[in-house]
Amino acid sequence: MELGVLGPVAAWDDAGRPIALKGPRHRAVLARLIVARGRVVPASRLVDDLWIDPPDGALSAVRTFVASLRRALEPDRAPRSPARLLVTEGPGYALRTEAVDAWRFERAVAAGGLPELSKGLALWRGPAYADFADEDWAQSERARLTELRLQAVERQAEARLALGLAAEAVPELDAHVTEHPWREEAWRLLALALYRTGRQGDALAVLRRARAMLIDQLGVDPGTALSRLETDILNQAEHLDPVSAGRVWEEAAAEYDRTVGAGARARLESTVGLLRSLAVTGGGGLEAARRHRLAAVMAAEELGDADLTARVIGAYDVPAIWTRSDDEAQGTAIVASAERALRTQEHPSMRARLLATIALESRGSRDRRAGQAAREAEEIARGLDDPAVLAFALNGVFMQSCRRAGLASRRDALGAELVELSARHGLATYEVLGHLIRLQACCALGEYAVADEHSSAADALAARHELPLVGVFTAWYRALRVDTVDAYEQAGSLLDGAGMPGLQQGLVPLAVAAHALRHGRPLADVDYGPYEPWVRPLVLLSRGRPVSAAVPEPPPGLLLEALWCLTALVARELGDDALLTRARHALAPAAGELAAGSGLLTLGPVSDYL
Description:
By secondary structure, this protein is mainly α. The protein folds into three domains: 121 residues, Arc Repressor Mutant, subunit A, CATH 1.10.10.10; 206 residues, Serine Threonine Protein Phosphatase 5, Tetratricopeptide repeat (Alpha Horseshoe); 109 residues, no CATH class. The chain is built from 29 helices and five strands. The relative contact order is 0.05.
């Protein structure tokens, strides 16, 4: 559910459908509580704000409006159960939500990147609190949001100029100065954008228009920034031309080729640095990084330099969130190389990195060595003054935290530590990882409002730091929240070309099957990929056909609880008491959780299966 005030006051459900809010005074009560930003508004104050001359029974009318809003905003709330959103506190009422478009807009402006600003500005549907423009209680908030929007338009234009997108900035800036001609910064940005698109004459004409408007209408001379820009344009000052990122890259790469010999060992370490950046660009970048990473490790080993090999292996500290390997053969090879490097490596930091690598590349393994490596990496890292090594080690601990059911709270604490550590030390990719871990854990714990916050935080960081693969996981989370077959299939389309086969294989069919089971619908007879052993028996049984193969024990991973729930269903249908006993024993630690710890799909409360 989301509330909207950036235009006429409105509300939408989780599927984006409008919620009927009845009459204008119902919307006024909602708007007034949003203005209060979670603070209690006494009922008597609401009466004064809603009527110039309150009628008899005004207080009762307010209570009626509140009751109607509660029914509209929380339609699934049981009768006589306490409201969770529009709550009664003391003498009045308050809203307990962060899902307000104006507040999302404020967070987008605070984030400051071009993607965030563009998304934030797209939330506007008209003037803020449009249907209450004349109300005293809305005036200051309307003025504040309007000014923030004008600043956001200018910051968006500035961000486009910084990225070399001057032509894209011109149309919106032209409309902006036409509507708000007193804003000198807007005139400056428009003139600069025109100049950078090769329209020097138009840029000077804009500056003359700005001067004439300021003098004729406001009686003031242009500020220093406008005057300086005109002089710089006339002189074609070099600093007006943006620095090309492509040119910087080409020149630096050429210099590197000239100064670092083709056979230099430094090239291998530099290559790993490039691969780390390539891996987070998504799609083909991730696949290429995976392929070249193993080649770099093999090349280092062939040189016979154990320290170099350890550095090449340990430098690839790309955060990992999914617990099924994309390439098991490569993972096995890298683990073997890391184990060989450990034999002669004594430096604590390098040992921690090698051990963390073993834990990460052994994802989904039942081998005790993987868990031991994770614990040892964490122990060493906590004794070092190196937040990057600790974050890497904690990623290994996370990857080995799904070896039994019911550990969502432990993963939530781990995610919280990663968010705090990474935010404090500027480790953006690990901060994203922490938010995604908490998103998953909150799904298992049924804390969806908190998961929403972590999804938004991960998206904001991803936009700021150009991490497109993050959107795959947050889109799947939104599909889980909507919980329709169409939503899962749309989320699945994002996996095409994402370079994550360990995530993609069988995921959409599994999600759709989970949805069908919870809604009493038949299972499709399709390829369930790696999840065949747990879904296929249910497909066969639903069609009256025999089950010929035993159901294997689910492997460690974020889908562990879900796969055990499927196992329980199979055991019930088969009347297999031994398998039921195994499933009950495995699921018992997760009795208070949902089988949704992946943050991608859900089979509902584990207690239903117990």
